[in-house]
Specification:
The structure is a homodimer of 586-residue chains.
Chain A (H helix, E strand, L loop, with lengths): L17 E14 L2 E8 L2 E8 L14 E10 L12 E12 L16 H6 L1 H4 L3 H23 L3 E2 L17 E3 L7 E3 L5 H9 L4 E9 L11 E10 L3 H20 L8 E4 H8 L13 E2 L10 H8 L3 E7 L8 H15 L5 E6 L2 E4 L7 H11 L6 E7 L1 H18 L10 E5 L4 E4 L4 E4 L26 E6 L2 E8 L4 H10 L4 H14 L7 E7 H9 L29 H5 L3 E3 L1 H5 L1
Parallel strand pairs in A: 3-5, 6-9, 11-17
Antiparallel strand pairs in A: 1-2, 1-4, 2-3, 4-5, 7-8, 9-10, 10-22, 12-13, 13-16, 14-15, 14-16, 17-20, 18-19, 20-21, 21-22
Helix pairs in contact in A: 3-5, 3-13, 6-10, 8-10, 11-12
Chain lengths: 586, 586
Amino acid sequence: MERTCRNGTLRLSDAGKQVTLIGWVSRRRNLGALVFVDLRDRSGIVQIVFDENLSPQVKEVRSEYILQVTGTVQERGQHNPKLATGEIEVHAESVKIINSAETPPITIADDTDTLEDTRLKYRYLDLRRPVLQNNMILRHKICMIARNTLDAEGFVEVETPILARSTPEGARDYLVPSRIYNGKFWALPQSPQIYKQLLMIGGLERYFQIARCFRDEDLRADRQPEFTQIDIEMSFVDEEDVWHIVEKLMQDIFRGVKGIELEDQFVRIPWAECMKKYGTDKPDLRFGNEISDITDLFENTEFQVFKAVRENGGEIDALKFEHAAALYSRKKLDQLQDFIKHGFKAKALAYLKMEKGEISGSIAKALSEGEKEALKERLCMQDDDLVLIVADKAKIAEAALGALRVRLGRELNLIPENVYKFLWVTDFPMFEWSEDENRWVAQHHPFTAPKTEDVDKLFSDPAHVSSRAYDLVLNGYELLSGSIRIHDQELQAKVFESIGLTMEQAKARFGFFLDAFRYGTPPHGGVGIGLERLTMVLAGTENIRDVVAFPTTNSSMDLMSESPNVVDKAQLDILGIEIKDEVKKA
Amino acid sequence: MERTCRNGTLRLSDAGKQVTLIGWVSRRRNLGALVFVDLRDRSGIVQIVFDENLSPQVKEVRSEYILQVTGTVQERGQHNPKLATGEIEVHAESVKIINSAETPPITIADDTDTLEDTRLKYRYLDLRRPVLQNNMILRHKICMIARNTLDAEGFVEVETPILARSTPEGARDYLVPSRIYNGKFWALPQSPQIYKQLLMIGGLERYFQIARCFRDEDLRADRQPEFTQIDIEMSFVDEEDVWHIVEKLMQDIFRGVKGIELEDQFVRIPWAECMKKYGTDKPDLRFGNEISDITDLFENTEFQVFKAVRENGGEIDALKFEHAAALYSRKKLDQLQDFIKHGFKAKALAYLKMEKGEISGSIAKALSEGEKEALKERLCMQDDDLVLIVADKAKIAEAALGALRVRLGRELNLIPENVYKFLWVTDFPMFEWSEDENRWVAQHHPFTAPKTEDVDKLFSDPAHVSSRAYDLVLNGYELLSGSIRIHDQELQAKVFESIGLTMEQAKARFGFFLDAFRYGTPPHGGVGIGLERLTMVLAGTENIRDVVAFPTTNSSMDLMSESPNVVDKAQLDILGIEIKDEVKKA
């Protein structure tokens, strides 16, 4: 179909040109004998002026009709600075109505507050909104850059199966019944982890895949049942090699889509230090306000609360905010205390304020002059500073202050926009204790290598085994997880044992994978980068549905196609399965 | 890990350099105090020479051990022309054993005839064979080129859901039970067809996706339960626009991976003509030997067989092969007759041979001199020509001769290698009659637009409605299918009706999709290119498992991970399904 250029690309320099455009009617206004139409295509919007005598059919045209217009570009009487094409308009000479439209159930021109459920039901109309189209284009660009960078670095993209084997560890699998082998099932992969390690054993050396992953979890706002991972694995590497590739990738992506030059090497901080300083393994480094451990200042304290915490092996931690004392009333501080009591099981929140060189606040009277002086010095307290203090078990105190750090950072506008702070968190613990299962579980996954120097503590002291796992954090979000993997069969078997898998269980679940280690496995490691998360950060949205073409609700329902849905009994019969009676009755 | 270059890249010009290499031991040979090792990495193989006094541990090394070697590149005494690195060898100064290996169950160095089942079970070892690695790299290259070409042409890659709605039409769906909505199911998509059309309705204008597709079919040798499609859709286009993009794509791919310049525009031939000339809609154009309809030569024949066929509205078709008369004995020709009797329900195969200007053969005596002369002239018969004739219903005669054309083309070595002949087959019939279902079914799929001039025959004469569907054929293989789609709600409803779907059924299955047509749907069309097929042609293999990293057997079983497999009852319970009693008992 004839079309000489894209609507959104026309500029004043095009004035005088004859053009043929195609697009959807975004708005139509009649003004005497003139009809003004905003015509939208993927590139943007341009104003068309029709003479109703010349094109009488245009008076019938409504929103979302599709028109093909031939006309001449002319400078506008009044420029519209809100529109990229705002300096010009197109004076129509002829028009053809390509298709008509009923009144759409959502308005595309205004970003009005249509209910999200309505927008999901009519997703094909919601996708006409420029902001969503631009997010799709952004996501595409990120993938193009990632692929070209990885290709240039010698990586080969390999597609791994979606119909895979169920290896229950971590989240729940989606299952697929087999028609040929009734009673047997595939699982949709939670990640290509085992396949990519097999590709390293297969000698591919450098693999990547922009891979679909599936987790049947109870969804949170930032999750979808299926999601995409930029999945990378490399042989003959240590941590530095992996980090270098990821840094290169991020530099290329941020340069390509934002024109931003990132630093050569990202900050690195071991997990234990990260938890102490920020109370989280996903700290937002766009602002400071680190947690200070002030336990040592109260060695001989007579303040009973601090004394008791010290005697029970707890910790006293403080967080200082400048120019904040006057902004936090007693009532607000009570709300903060409620927040950490309910969210983090902290017993209490103490606070101090500095006013005219004097310390006041909830515990000011309980502290000695010496303690107050020591505090002033340690925290460099100035007038109008607010200091929040939690004395509790170390984990609780750090987590509570970590959360307060983020909350006050937002409330006090300490977080600059359009700043991107990356951070490698390293040396994660190998295991964490699962209260539910009453056993140690792998913190990352059971293929992660322990630090060599900690291998002999696998059974004697699992709590203090560090792993070769690492996360990349961006502005407080976990962007990726990765690790150097185990490449030794015996060590892999030991790690399975240490998380309570017997050799029989390990063989039943991962037998083929353990077997593969016997024939010359290279040292290897990699990462899985959350594509939706990365796109969300770059698009500046906190709603994952803004970066997914056809998203589901939080309960995994696609409102547009109404799936999942019922199927014919005949379809189930050939799969050898049936719906349980109690489900049918319900 | 230290590694200065890749094994397969070393050349005579590197002589004198000190290098550090890593790789798998492909072979080891001891020769007095010297040990020769072929060290393999993804780039290739290089010969390393060890002095056993300097590196005594090398005598212990076996196949598939991983070594890190530092040494000096030197010219070989005798060059090995079979190896890219055959002019040099590396004299080792030091070696480190990175990992050991048990004796592998398949030999990687020789392409010996290991049973395919054993190779599938140890796929991670089979993948170490250079031929498979190169196929994976080829597949990756094809995708890289496709993405870069489509990106440059303004296409946006969009990921569409894998957890989709079941829309039973065509092959069987794989189903996924829902945990949250017990009794409901998703289907894995047979293609992104509906989603990509919704993206056009959503204003994306140019979409592509290298998309995973799933069909639960009884597999043939060239099928896998999951496969990949380069999926393309465009708005505001007709056939020419789509073909132009596909031609550009193929030109870029063939230039990029083969260094071959394809023709500017591919040959086009309407379906009906194609069937008449080649007896198939997937003709191999690397050789001629077109079918000739010679029915008209026998208008007044007295040969009863031909006469009867003519009177029943049948057709007499002939196929000529030069220099073939002497090569086809009576016995061989009987075999050809059996072949078309069993495979194509043809009643008989007649043949004629030309020897010293005289026609002989099975029906020579039954033909008049005039008919023989007319045949000579029509078919330009020369000495030693073989002519095969089938007189039957037109469909049967064409199909039988089409198959013989390919068979004799191969037997007579008429098909040149390294030649790539593309062909657009156009104007497919809209419907075909399904004997099984006793109704007309869509030949392509029910979203394909009928030719405008045939719309009024949808109900009155469905057999003669042509569609705007097209295939691209390469060397006898169907590389892609595509069509211009319906973009009008009423016409879409009519087409559903014409294949026997009531409005209620159509709404139940495709309601949301029909709804979407109401709000300004652009004219659109596209294609789905079979990535495995394209890679197979470029890799020169006829086994789909050679271009898939982790393939299944013909019965959809992954012998490596043994999937599908049984799962815990608890996993089924939370999905609200159970295995049918008769399956459990079996």
